[in-house]
């Protein structure tokens, strides 16, 4: 199995994109960015489909369903015209966010790694080889909590398309095989609480299901405890 196909075990980094759907930027009262906003998540935040996503005490956890792009080979300063050749495959992901932690850190103009970096805060589907995805710029992403649809978007609404993201990231940091790019979330983000059952699907334009991602939200025992100031 290639490093890309086993990216959850062997990948070195998760590069996430903030505010890449204008409706989501609006719902958080954020300006639409002039270039992609990037942040990193640790690979220790992965939890495979079927697992438990642990919410630390005091944390208001929000779901953000996203298309993940799995990098297939090492590259730096990748031109947009060649970006597609650096894609090995895809995955369906949820970028869990400790929203109250993030808002306090943002209000102090501090980095918000803690809000994104908790263990189990990147639920992830199985790997989808590139050959199974005819057009990554027209995929529907949906997320349900306890059977109720909360997010239902399409990758065609991205502000910065995948080739632009690959180019931009690779001008800042070298991309390596097995790295995951989280391409941003559509609108509809909101809370997940212990006891919730979360179900996500990725479909192509014909309605064919490419991936599912399911997880249970549980209260984390011990560890971090958020206390607002």
UniProtKB/TrEMBL annotation:
Keywords: Metal-binding. One of its GO terms (biological process) is carboxylic acid metabolic process. Belongs to the FAH family. PANTHER family: ACYLPYRUVASE, ACYLPYRUVASE FAHD1, MITOCHONDRIAL. This is Fumarylacetoacetase-like C-terminal domain-containing protein. One of its GO terms (cellular component) is mitochondrion. GO terms for molecular function: acetylpyruvate hydrolase activity; metal ion binding. It comes from the Eukaryota. Residues 13-203 form the Fumarylacetoacetase-like C-terminal domain.
